[in-house]
């Protein structure tokens, strides 16, 4: 899910991520997407850029990928793709499987059924826009044509590094806001309980 959010690609593109076509740096992995599909013409290969996010290790997609590759290393003799099936023979997964995994995460997170795997692209690109990122940077991250209207027309609902940081910052801000609301609610409940006890004691 983290990869789908910070690298807003189609399920087919996520399924095509390969360890044979990745440039590995200290704080960034750059996957080249060399395959062709109906939505892409000739030209420069698309990329999926995954950077470190030191502000919060739990949200760091690069840490997640490194751990995933390390844990699945013994099963990688048959396929170079990043994502593998967790059932024998641990082969590459299809775009359908990627989409199903994303839907399952959305459901487990309590997201409404009407949101599907493709909704991650809309969610992450919209969050980045609300964080102030330009349409140009968002469209570059999603590999949309710079002179097209795909984002504005189909995805918007209300630089790569900036894109990832804006998505994860939005997530952290939302989590912090929710936590403060919960703490405020608990504090109010605690105060009300003390008042009731005091009134009861006076009686």
UniProtKB/TrEMBL annotation:
The keyword Lipid metabolism is assigned to this record: no
One GO-annotated biological process of the protein: DNA integration
Biased amino acid composition, Basic and acidic residues: 179-190
Swiss-Prot/TrEMBL keywords: DNA recombination
GO terms assigned for molecular function: DNA binding
Disordered: annotated span: 166-203
Name used for this protein in its record: Site-specific recombinase, phage integrase family
Organism: Oesophagostomum dentatum
């Amino acid at each position: 899910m983290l990869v789908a959010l910070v690298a807003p690609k189609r399920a087919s593109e996520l399924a095509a991520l390969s360890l044979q076509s990745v440039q590995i740096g200290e704080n960034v992995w750059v996957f080249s997407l060399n395959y062709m599909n109906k939505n892409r013409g000739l030209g420069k290969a698309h990329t999926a850029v995954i950077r470190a996010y030191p502000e919060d290790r739990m949200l760091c997609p690069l840490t997640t990928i490194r751990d995933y590759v390390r844990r699945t290393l013994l099963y990688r003799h048959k396929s170079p793709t990043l994502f593998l099936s967790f059932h024998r023979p641990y082969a590459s997964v299809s775009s359908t499987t990627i989409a199903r995994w994303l839907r399952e995460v959305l459901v487990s997170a309590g997201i409404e059924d009407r949101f599907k795997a493709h909704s991650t692209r809309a969610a992450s690109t919209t969050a980045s826009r609300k964080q102030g990122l330009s349409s140009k940077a968002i469209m570059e991250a999603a590999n949309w044509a710079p002179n097209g209207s795909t984002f504005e027309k189909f995805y918007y609902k209300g630089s790569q590094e900036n894109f990832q940081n804006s998505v994860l910052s939005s997530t952290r801000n939302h989590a912090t806001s929710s936590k403060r609301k919960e703490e405020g609610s608990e504090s109010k409940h605690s105060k009300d309980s003390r008042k009731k006890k005091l009134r009861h004691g006076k009686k």
